[in-house]
Amino acid sequence: MNNMNLLPVYPEIFLLIAASAILLIDLFVSDAKRHVTYLLTMATLAICAVLSLADVNSGLTTYTFHNMFVSDPMSSLLKVFSYIAVGLTLIYSRQYASDRGMLSGYLGGEFYVLALFALLGQMVMISGNNFLIIYLGLELMSLSLYALVALRRNHAVSTEAAMKYFILGALASGFLLYGMSMLYGATGSLDLTEVAKAAASGTVNKTVLVFGVVFLVSGLAFKLGVVPFHMWVPDVYQGAPTAVTLLLGGAPKLAAFAICIRLLVEGLLPLAVDWQQMLVVLAVLSMVIGNVTAIAQTNLKRMLAYSTISQMGFVLLGLLSGVVNGNVFSAANAYSSAMFYSITYVLTTLGTFGVILLLARAGFEAENLDDFKGLNQRSPWFALVMLLLMFSLAGIPPVMGFYAKLAVLQAVLGTGQVWLAVVAVLLSLIGAFYYLRVVKLMYFDEPVDNSVIVINKDMRVALSINGAAVLALGLMPGPLMTACATAIVKTLAS
Amino acid sequence: MMQSTFPVLSLVIWCPIAFGLFVLAFGRDDNPALVRGVSLVGAIVSFLVTLPLIQHFDNAAHGMQFVEKFAWIDRFNIHYFLGIDGLSLWFIPLTAFITVIVVMAGWEVIEKRVAQYMGAFLILSGLMIGVFCALDGLLFYVFFESTLIPMFIIIGVWGGANRVYAAVKFFLYTLVGSLLTLVAILYLYFKSAGSFDILTWHKLPLPLSAQILVFLAFLMAFAVKVPMWPVHTWLPDAHVEAPTGGSVVLAAIMLKLGGYGFLRFSLPIAPDASHYLSAFIITLSLIAVIYIGLVALVQTDMKKLVAYSSIAHMGFVTLGFFVFNEMAVQGAIVQMISHGFVSGAMFLCIGVLYDRMHSRQIADYGGVVNTMPKFAALFVLFSLANCGLPATSGFVGEFMVILGAVKFNFWIGVLAATALIFGAAYSLWLVKRVVFGEIGNPYVAKLKDLSAREFFMLGMLAVAVIAMGLYPAPFTDAMQTSVADLLKHVALSKVN
Which tens digits make up the pLDDT trace of B319-377? Predict the structure, then answer.
C-alpha cells in the first residue's frame, strides 16, 4: 500500500486549490461581475463531480495517508450527491442572495467560497477513517457554516441564529471529541480500523468503551439534529437566510450520515447492541416530537425544520437495523436503506427550499405558510413541483420518498421489531397531515399575494429537473437503490 | 399463465395517463374548448383500447391472462407484473367507460382550471386500472395509494363549500388503512423469502395467528375503501363535497378497489383467517346493509342519500364474498359492476339538477317531471335499478348474493333480503319527493330539460344498466372459472 497515494484525494485537493483561487480571483471581480465567481464555483463543482464519478465507476476502496483517509464507493457516491446538493443550492440562492446584499460590498463573493469550504469539510468527513480527520472535517464544515449563517450581520434574527448554532455546535463537537478521547484511551488508537479490531478483541475495558459511545452518539445526534439534541434546528433553520438554511440542511446531512457509518459501523460494530438501543430511543422521540410539533407551526421554514427532525428519525431507524442478535447478515441491507433515505431526503429538501427561494424576493421572505396560498393559480408548474415534493416527504407513492420509507421499513421489519415499524408508520401518518396542509394552501385557497413570480432561467431549469427527478426516481428507484446497496456492500467488505 | 405478446395491459394503463399528462402540460386555461376536446378523445381512445381485452379473454382458461412481467426494482425483487383474470376483467372497461362519462359530465360545468380537472381524471383512470391489473404486491400498493393524490386535488379544488375538510378526511382516513397494509405486505415479503408476487403469496403457508394479523391489516385498507360500517364516515363527506365527476368516480370505481382487494388479497392469502373471521365480516356487512339503509332513508341531501345507499350496496358485496359460495361471490362481483353504472348514473342525475338549481336539498325540489320529462324518465329508471328492480343490472347481483346467502344460512339471507325493502323505500321515496307531485316552487317551474350532452351520457348508462340486467351472461361467464378456482383455493387450509 502506497501511504502517500494522492489519487484518492484528487477531488479534495482540486477543491481546495480551486476554492483558494476563487477567493483570490474574487478580490478583482466587481460587484456587477459577480457572476464570474458564480460560474467559477459551478465549474469547480462540475470538475469535482467528474473526478468523483470516476471513483464511483472504478468501485475500488483505497486507503491513503497511513489509513487516515479512505476513498470507497460509499464516499464517492455521497460526494457526488453533495456536489449536486451544493450546486443546486447555489443556483437556487443566486437571486435571493444578491437581493439581500450577500453577494456585494464588503462581503464580495465570500458566500461562494465559504460554501466551497463547507463542502470540502463534508468531503473530508465522508472520507475520514481516523477520529482526528473526521473531527477536522467536521470543524472545517461547521466553522464555514457558522460564518454563513451570520453572513447578514446587521440582521438580528440571523445573528441570533448564528450564535445559537455556534454555541450548540461547539458543545456538540466537544461531546464528540470527548467520546473520541475515551475510545482512544480505551483502545490506544485513533484509526477506525484499529479501534474496531480492539473493540472486537474483548480485551478492552467495556465500561470506558460504552461511555465513549454514549458521548459519540450524543455528538452525532447533535449534528443530525435528532431529539433530544434538536433544540438548535428550528431556530437556525428559521433564522438563517433561506439560502444558508439550504446549505446546512442539504449536503451536511449526507456527511452526517457518512460519519455515522464510519464511527458507529466501521469503528464500533462490536458495540452495536449498545448504540442500537440508544438509536431506538432517539429515533422514536424524533419521530414523535418532530411530527407532532410540526403541526403547530405557521412558519414554513420552522415546519420543515421539525419535519427534518422526524425524517432524521427515519434515517436512524435504518441505521439501527443492521445487527440482529449479533449477526450482520442484514447489515448491508439496513445501511443502504438508510443511505437511500438520506439521499432522498436531501434531494427533496433541496426542491422544497428551492420553491421557498423562488417565491422570495427583495424584502419578502415567503417563509410563512400563508405565503403559499393559491400558488397553483400563480404558477401551476411550480405548485405541481411542490406537490410532488410534499408527497415525497409524506411518503406517498409514486414519488421517491415512498421508496425510501419502504426500504427503511423493510429493514426494520427484517429485525423482527414489528412494533417499531408500526410506530413509524403511524407517526408518518401524523406527518402526512402537515404536508397535506401545504398542498391544501397551494391548491385549495385563493392567493393573497398576486405579485408575478420572477424566475431566472437557470433556476427554472434546475428546479424543474429537481422536481422531475423526485418523480422519476419514484417511478424508477431501482438503479439508485442498487447503487446504494453496492456501495455499502463494498464499503463494509473492505 | 398466458404470456401476452403485445403489452395490452400496459397500453390500457398508460394510455389515459399519457393523455392526462399531455393535457396537464399543454392545456391552456384560455382555450378550454380544445382541452375538453383532447380530453374526450383521450378518454374515448383509452376506452377503445380496453375492448380487445374482452374480445380476447378466454373464459375457460385458469390463471392469469395477458400477463406482462419485467424486473422493476431488482434490489427488492419487485416486478412490473400485470395480468388479469375473470375477477378483474370487467372492472377495466368499466373504469375507462366511466372516465368517458366523467369527462362529458364536466364539459360545461367545470370552468376554472379545466386542464387540471381533465388531467386529474385521466391520470386517476389509468392508476385505477393499474390497481386491477397489478399482480405484484408492491406495484398494487403503489397504484392503490397513488389514486389518493388526484382524488384529493379533485375534491379540494372543484368541491363544494366544505371541501377542504372532506378532502383531508378522505386522504387521512384512507392513508391510515393503507399504511398498515404496507406493513402486512412487507411481512409477507419476508415470509415468502423475498417475493412480492401475489400469486406466490397465494400459495404461502401461514399459521392461523399470522393469517389473522395479515387479514386484519388488509381489512384496514379495504374496509375503509369499500367502505364498511363503522369506517364509512369519510364517504358521505367526500361525496357531498366532491364535484359531480369526483362523486361518480368515487362511487363507481374507487369503492371497488376495496372490494377487489378482498378477492385478490384477503381471501386467497389468508383463507383460514377468512373463514375464522367470516362471522365478523358478515355481521359488519349486515349492519351496513340494514342500518345504513335506514340512515339513507332519513337523509335530506340527495347526494348524501345516494352516498349512504352506496355503503349499503357495498355491504351486499362484502356479504357475498364471505358466504363462500360461487353464486354469492359472482353475485358480489356483478353487484360491484352494476353499482358502478347505477351509482354513477345517480350522481350524474343529481349533478344535472344541481347545475340548474345549485341545491342538493330534496326539499327544494318537487314535480321535476313536469318540466324535465326526459330527465325524469331516466332518473326513475336509475332509481329502480338502485333498488334492484328485475330487468335492471341492480337486480342480478343482489339476487345472486341473496340466493348464495340463503344457501349459507337461511336467516342471513332473510336479513339481507329485507334490505331490498329499505332500498326500495329510500329510492322510491326520493323519486316521489323530487320527481313527482306538484311543481314545488317557481325555480322548478323554470327548469330546462336535459341537453343533448346530458341525455347522451345518461342514455349510455341507461343502456348499460338495462343490457346488463337483461343479459348478464357475458359478465358471469367471464368470471365463472376464476371464481370457482378462488373458492377451491379458499376451501383448502394453508395452516401447516
Answer: 999 988 888 999 999 999 999 999 999 999 999 888 888 888 888 888 888 888 888 89
- State yes or no: cis peptide before B227, omega within 30 of 0: yes
CA pair distance A490, A487, nearest whole angstrom: 5
Q: Distance of CA A448 to CAs A297, A365, A381, B287, Å?
A: 19, 15, 19, 47
Cα–Cα dist B394/B381, whole Å: 11
The 3-class secondary structure across A410-423, one letter per residue, is HHHHHCCCHHHHHH
Tell which B residues from 305 to 324 touch A, by Cβ distance under 8 Å: none
Among A423, A443, A446, A482, the strongest candidate for a mutation testing the B interface, having the largest count of B CBs within 10 A, is A443
- Cβ separation B152–A376 shorter than 8 A: no
Distance CA A488, CA A78 (A): 11
Interface contact flag, A436 B76, Cβ < 8 Å:
no
The ipTM (two decimal places) reads: 0.90
With CA atoms as reference, the chain B residue closest to A399 would be B146
**CA separation for the pair A401, A471 (Å, rounded):** 9
- Chosen for mutation from A373, A381, A396, A435 (greatest number of chain B CBs closer than 10 Å) is A396
Residues on chain B touching A291 (C-beta within 8 angstroms): none
Cell 448504540: give the residue.
A275
Say if the Cβ atoms of B172 and A482 lie within 8 Å. Answer: no
Establish if A391 touches chain B: CB-CB under 8 angstroms.
Answer: yes
β strands within B249-335, DSSP E:
none
The three-class DSSP label of residue B162 is: coil
Closest CA to A125 of A219, A211, A57, A43: A219
What is each CA distance from B208 to B205, B271, B277, in whole angstroms? 9, 9, 11
Nearest residue of A to residue B155 by CA position? Answer: A444
**In this predicted structure, what is the pLDDT of residue B3?**
55
Which residues are registered as beta bridge partners of B69?
B81
b/e map of B340-376 (b: 16 or more CB within 10 Å)?
bbbbbbbbbbbbbbbebbeebebebbbbbbbbbeebb
pLDDT, tens only, B302-326: 889 999 999 988 988 999 999 888 8
> What are B210's three cell numbers?
399470522
- Integer Cα distance of B335 and B314 in angstroms: 8
A430 touches chain B (CB under 8 A): no
CB atoms within 10 A of CB A161: 24
Place of cell 398508460: B14
B171 shares contact with chain A (CB less than 8 Å): yes
Amino acid (one-letter) located at A304: L
Phi, psi of B72 (to 5 degrees): -115, -60
Which amino acid would we find at residue B78?
A: I
CA distance B407 to B400: 11
User: Cα–Cα distance between B404 and B119 in angstroms, integer?
Assistant: 42
State pLDDT tens for residues B60-72: 888 888 888 888 8
The size of the A-B interface in CB pairs under 8 A is: 90
Residue B237, all three cell numbers:
363527506
Q: Backbone phi, then psi, for B59, in 5-degree steps? A: -65, -30
Determine the residue among A295, A340, A410, A430 to mutate to test chain B binding: the one whose Cβ has the most chain B Cβ atoms within 10 Å. Answer: A410
Across the interface, whether the CB atoms of B146 and A406 are under 8 A apart is answered: no
SS3 label, residue B359: coil
- Report the predicted TM-score, pTM, of the whole model to 2 decimal places: 0.92
Alpha-carbon separation of residue A33 from A192, B199, B341 (angstroms): 46, 64, 66
Dihedral in degrees, nearest 10, Cα atoms A217, A218, A221, A226: 130
Query: Is the CB of B51 inside 8 Å of chain A's CB atoms?
Result: no
Cis peptide before B230 (omega within 30 of 0): yes
Q: Do B141 and A397 touch (CB under 8 A)?
A: yes
